Amino acid sequence: MYQSFTGSGRRPRQINLSGRPTNPFASSSPVGGPPSAIASAQQDRANRQQHRERLQASSRIQRVWRGHSARRKTFKAWRQIWDDLEEHGPKASAGNGVYASPEDALKQLRRLLLFYQPKEDVRRLAWYGMRQMATAGGGGAASCSDGPWPEAYLRLSRACTAALRARTSPDLELDRTLLTVLAFSIRKAGNIDQQDAISYYETLTSLKDVPTDALQTALVAPLQSTSQAYVGLAVLLETPLDSGMLKLLHSAIDAVALCEALGIQRSTDFQRSTTANLNSRDPPIRSRLWLLGNLIALVGGSNNASYISAVSRLLGSLAEDVDFDSAPIDMENLTFDRDILTKVATGLPLNAYLHEQITSLINQDSIRNLLTKNAASQDNDGAQLLASYALTLLRCFPRRADDIRMWLYLGPTSTEPSNNLPATRYFWDATKVNTLFRTIWQNSRSVLSLLKASPTTAQQKDDWTVIMVFLELYTFLLKIMDDEEFMGSGSGRNNAIPIGEVGDLVTFLKNLGFTLYFNASELNSTVDAAGSDASTLSLGRHFGKTAEPAFKAAAIESKPLTLAGLPGLTIDYLKGLTTGLLRAIYERDSRRHFLPANHWLMTDRFDMTSFIPGVVAEEESRHLVQDQDDDDKDDPESDEDLEGSGGLFAGPTLPGGGGGGRRGTAAGYASLLRSQNARERAQRKASRKRYLESVAPRLEILQNMPFFIPFTTRVEIFRQFVQLDQEKRRNGYVDPDLWRQSMMFAPPNGMPPRDLLARHHAKIRRKNEFADAFEQFYELGSDLKEPIQITFVDEFDIQEAGIDGGGVTKEFLTSVISQAFDPANENIEHAYFVENDRHLLYPNPTVIEDLKVKLRSMGLRDNQPGSRAEVRNLLQQYEFLGRIIGKCLYEGILVDVSFAGFFLKKWSLTGGANSASMESGYRATINDLRELDEGLYRGLLALKNAPAEQVEDFGLTFTVDDLVGPDEDHKQVIERELIPGGANKLVTADSQSRLTYINRMSWYRLQGQSAQQTHAFLKGLSSIVQPSWLSMFNQAELQTLIGGAAAEINVVDLRRNTLYGGTYVIGDDGQEHPSIQLFWHVLATLPDAERRKVLKFVTSTPRGPLLGFGQLNPRFSIRDSGSDENRYPTTSTCVNLLKLPMYRSEETLRQKLLAAVNSGAGFDLS
């Protein structure tokens, strides 16, 4: 009994689901039980299903075969009927193969198409075609051209194209017949749709080994009957063509219809209608390149709007993938397409044919007359079209960009007043009214969404295009425009925008520029190259080059975000353009002050309390990433000052520009490989640069648009950067004594401590400070940043007595500077710097030529080793002077030296790899020339504004005369050409001739003549102070950083930050000594000019630190020098120490102090 709580004694049912036998005495079997039953059932079901599928498949096969067999029998019967009718049917009485009637011909065509198979019935098709051609050409021609016949001819042409696609081997006679019938039928068909047109030309372009004359006839056949055929013609134009084919097409095409068809074809993204050719069609870049070249060859020189639109779209789509400025490769079209274009995916070169066609777009007359020929019907669409075309030319031909801008600036060649429409004003009027400009101008927080908008509307694309071309033209205009013309007071045609509207433009640029830098991490999203193979990006794989690592290949494939989806216009390009223009307007405003003082600031977009720590942290992060950039450094290129970069503002170049002529086949391969490698390095560098911008947005703003941040904040950041650099270099021991101690106990690189410290110690003779410093410290290089020790000795080599407040570094630096930068100093070998009319310094432009003349007089030729060594030594001295100025900036030591603004501008525009690539290097302008030579400046302005009939009276050629030689009384005159052949070229009344002369002269005087000296000085300066730090300041701010603030001396601040020694030390009562109180009272009552004399008497500079006297290094100090009131105050300028006797009378203190200050007494009297 099995009792349970239910009270029932019935045994419960047990179900075994384990598959194991429950009877321990039963025999075990591998098969059996429920699992085997389930498996068996499943197998039975699978077998039955397989059997059913086999039956169904066999049924389908039988059904298909029966159908196929029936069709074969039917087709055979139809073929027999068709053949019988062709052989025994009624014929025209003429007996020449003409059908008896159009109805008979139409019936035969329809019968033929019932069973037509391209391979089996091709000869029947050819036979019918020839008979129908004879029929249509006979008396029944009129009845074979209307009603059902157009559709019948179209079906006949489709049958011919199918037969041509199906051909497996050449048959010249049959191929000729088919092509003849095809040409006939497509002409008779009349209008055809795009799909048929594309299929037609795809078939013809795929044919090989066919009769040329018949093929050419077929190619041009549809062009006279329908405009839709031009959509298909684009397929042909996407392939390399020979000169004969181009001549044939040129005589047959309708240029307007072709350009309009390209617009239709572009809208469909080059899609093809046939499946057979879908996988074998050309890559888009390669296709568009041939299409562009062939289009220009067929329609070139036209100013039709549809042609401009087609060229603009094609050229813009190739801007990032084709190197239009490279020298052409001398190859035939077919060879070039097979051997080069099929193996390169980006950075494509051009062969001679493509180069000739595409560079023909850079035509002065056509560009100058763009507005004239379209002015009659200009609206927003017209402005967008012209803007798109002009912008595309600028993007694709950077070496000719200044020429293009100049031609647009000069305007139409016609002298009629109605046609004289300034391009800059035209595009500004179109810019300021468009919606995009107004939105960004009103709200800086709306910019990000506009830049990231996807998809972008057509109106936004048009607005961006107009804005971009205006920014390009206005940037150029500021380079050639003098201040009077900019302010609206110049004579002649005024291309500048009204001065009252410049503020609106600056606001727009500020809002746009801020977002481009501060939100770089959101904008720098990259787009993967769809379906691209990294190995095809370089020719290296075809020449045995090792494949790039994966991370580098990824960097190559990444592309920056494009602006509104416009081909070739990237966010990086917009950033550079915005940065350059903002800098140019800010520089102009720094001189003429036409905007409110706070108009440039954008502090409302920053948390200024954490701004400085944030910038310092970004600088540290940036250093870590930049350390990885060493392996991708570009090959060193000649300095921009030494060699121009082509165009109107470049230095002298060889005739023919930088193209270098055509490249042969072998040289073309080698040059292309180098170009590809350089392009890959540039892309990796650009990718890393975008990453740096993302991790350091505040730093990017400081280096590219520093005027967004107050000057005092930037000075604090500069000092923080220096502090950070000192800590890194000195292993945390910023104090000079602690650093020396650390070097004694833990010298780096195993160098003996004494030798290490001895390199930083020098014995300096009075009156020979610069020569001794150069001899003993030049080899230090950037190690001059570390603390140095100076021992001054007199003419008898006796060490001077004095107070050494951690070394007399300040006294040494100020002595070297006062000697080397004084043009009249007799204790230096060369006049390294000279003064302008306002006593501001700049490098002596003739010092190298003066030295060469001197050496020649001693019998040394320029190319002899001794002469080159002397010149090299002179440039090293300039480099050392740059290090000395850098040392003062690095240590925070103010020096009394003032540089010319154009020279200081070169410091701030040397600031590393800024986004404004074309603006991060100094560009000479006529406005800077005013700071060099006022007379030359006014003379060039007179030439610029002179009436045309008076220009020849100047009698100028493109030459300049230099007076060189060490002897002032026996100078030599050297004539130099400003352009190749300039001695034989007169400056004419033509505006371009005058502007070219003015800008070439400005370049030579400001940049070219002193290029080597300036380059050497900036090289030394940058070895001490990072160029990116200097880029935070403009030229006026740099002068303040060097010599101190020009504001009135703040006596209260100076008193608060003064240290006292000796008797003057403040005691526990906190009261100042009576003599100290008298001193501060006297100083407070002195005029500011006298206060500056006192400050210079103590510190050697008449200006105080910008951030207050708390930043003065060393601090301003006063100590007693006895109680004799007959003594004069003396100083130790090396430690900013005033030694003040204990005067008891205010009048006596005033008299003695001013007497000492005006006599120049100092350290030597103490």
UniProtKB/TrEMBL annotation:
Residue ranges with Acidic residues bias: 627-643
InterPro entries to which the protein is assigned, alphabetical: E3A/B/C-like, HECT_dom, Hect_E3_ubiquitin_ligase
Source organism phylogeny: Eukaryota, Fungi, Dikarya, Ascomycota, Pezizomycotina
Annotated Gly residues bias: 644-663
Ranges of compositional bias, category Basic and acidic residues: 45-55
Reaction(s) this enzyme catalyzes, per UniProt: S-ubiquitinyl-[E2 ubiquitin-conjugating enzyme]-L-cysteine + [acceptor protein]-L-lysine = [E2 ubiquitin-conjugating enzyme]-L-cysteine + N(6)-ubiquitinyl-[acceptor protein]-L-lysine
GO biological process: protein polyubiquitination; ubiquitin-dependent protein catabolic process
Protein's organism: Oleoguttula mirabilis
Protein name as catalogued: HECT-type E3 ubiquitin transferase
Pfam families linked: HECT
Composition-biased stretches (Low complexity): 24-41
List of catalytic residues: 1134 (glycyl thioester intermediate)
GO molecular function: ubiquitin protein ligase activity
SUPFAM superfamilies per record: Hect, E3 ligase catalytic domain (SSF56204)
EC number: 2.3.2.26
Keyword terms, alphabetized: Transferase, Ubl conjugation pathway
Region named Disordered: 1-58, 620-666
Ranges of residues in domain HECT: 780-1166
